[in-house]
Amino acid sequence: MEVRFWKGKSRLPGELAGYLKFGDAAIITDQDHRILDINAYYEQTTGYSRSSIIGFKAGFLKSGLTPLCTYTSLKNELRMGKPWSGVFTNRKKSGEIWHSSITITPIHLGDQWYFVGVFRELEQ
Questions:
Q1: How many Cβ atoms are within 10 Å of 114's Cβ, its own excluded?
Q2: How far apart (Å, rounded) are the C-alpha atoms in residues 73 and 81?
Q3: Mean confidence (pLDDT) of the chain
Q4: Mean local confidence (pLDDT), 56-78
Q5: Taking a C-beta distance cutoff of 8 angstroms, is the pair 49, 32 a contact?
Q6: Which residues, at least 6 apart from 119, have a Cβ–Cβ distance to it below 8 Å?
Q7: pTM of the full structure
Q8: How far apart are CA 115 and CA 106, in angstroms?
Q9: Please, are residues 100 and 112 in contact by the beta-carbon 8 Å criterion?
Q10: Which residues pair with 7 in a beta bridge?
């Protein structure tokens, strides 16, 4: 994975570190939706290690099974600085389909926006 652009300027702001202590899978991205960090529950749920996905765009998990209207709704709410909740169908590292309820909350720090996503795996 090429992450030269990432080094030195992609550190997670200290104000966001507490979100990684959640008991559900949590992911934090920057305003370009690049993954800054994930917690241990995210690793356990998806099979992706922290070191293998930091720097990737969060959309790399897409399965193609989540309706387009879900992403439209998501983008509209986040652009207005509002949290969004919905259901995603993504793929785990194993290729297995993963249905999850997610809430994504935009957080403005300084002149940057960050997005904190909290996933809860749904029964199949």
A1: 19
A2: 13
A3: 89
A4: 93
A5: no
A6: 24, 25, 26, 27, 42, 45, 88, 100, 101, 102
A7: 0.88
A8: 5
A9: no
A10: none
* Burial of 12: CB neighbours in 10 Å, binned 0-12, 13-18, 19+: middle
Alpha helices in 1-124, H assignment, sequence order: 40-46, 50-53, 68-79
Whether the CA torsion 33, 37, 39, 41 is positive or negative: it is positive
Percent of the chain with pLDDT over 70: 90
- Please, are residues 35 and 29 in contact by the beta-carbon 8 Å criterion? yes
Confidence of residue 3 (pLDDT cuts 50, 70, 90): very low
Amino acid at 34: R
**Strand order through the sheet with 35-38:** 35-38, 25-29, 112-121, 97-109, 84-91
